Amino acid sequence: MKINEIPKIKFGSSSDDIDDLANKVLKGEKTATSSLYDYYEMGLKDRSEIGDYLAVLNSKDEEVVLVRVEKIEIVKFGDVSENFAQEEGDGSLENWISIHRPYYSRLLSAIGKELSGDTLLVCEWFSVVTQ
User: Fold this and answer.
1) What secondary structure does DSSP assign to 31-58, as a single string?
2) Residue 22 in contact with residue 30, Cβ under 8 Å?
3) 32-36 and 120-130 as β-strands: parallel, antiparallel, unpaired?
4) Of the four, 16, 33, 68, 71, which is 20 to 30 A from 7 by CA?
5) Is 131 helix (H, G, I), strand (E, B) or coil?
6) Quick check: 2 pLDDT over 50?
7) How many CB atoms lie within 10 A of CB 109?
């Protein structure tokens, strides 16, 4: 795979969030992410595979760091653990829920669905390859 073919990824939705989360990846404070399973099933998001490389972008679409996908699990929203919330860079499960409940509710509403404890998430863990 050529460098320009490496998929690009941004975390967060606002410029401040995107830059903060990219920096957390760079510092090793964010080693995981989650996405809605429904988005993959509907073809709205590309699937990652273990071993894939992803270029993490900042709010200016500049590459900040290259990561490698190490592990992928399907987890129910209601089963997200304290440990995963910390790995995602959100500090605690309570904070993770306060961030992700409205975010996923908004995304699901756009496709005519509602968030519940049974909503499936694709949880991915990654490691920094280059800085």
Assistant:
1) -EEEEEHHHHHTTSSPPP-TT-EEEEE-
2) no
3) antiparallel
4) 16
5) coil
6) no
7) 11
Of the candidates 108, 101, 97, the residue with the CA atom closest to the CA atom of residue 38 = 108
Which tens digit of pLDDT belongs to each residue from 26-80?
999 999 999 999 999 999 888 999 999 999 999 999 999 999 999 999 999 999 9
CA dist., res. 117 & res. 22, Å (int)? 28
Backbone phi and psi for residue 111, each to the nearest 5 degrees, phi listed first: -115, 20
Distance CA 78, CA 64 (A): 32
CB 34 within 8 A of CB 79: no
Whole-number Cα distances in Å, 94 to 20, 97, 110: 19, 5, 25
Q: What is the pLDDT of residue 66?
A: 95
Q: What is the mean pLDDT of residues 118-124?
A: 98
What pTM, to 2 d.p., does this model score?
Answer: 0.90
**pLDDT above 90: residue 18:** yes
Residue 131 has pLDDT above 70, yes or no: no
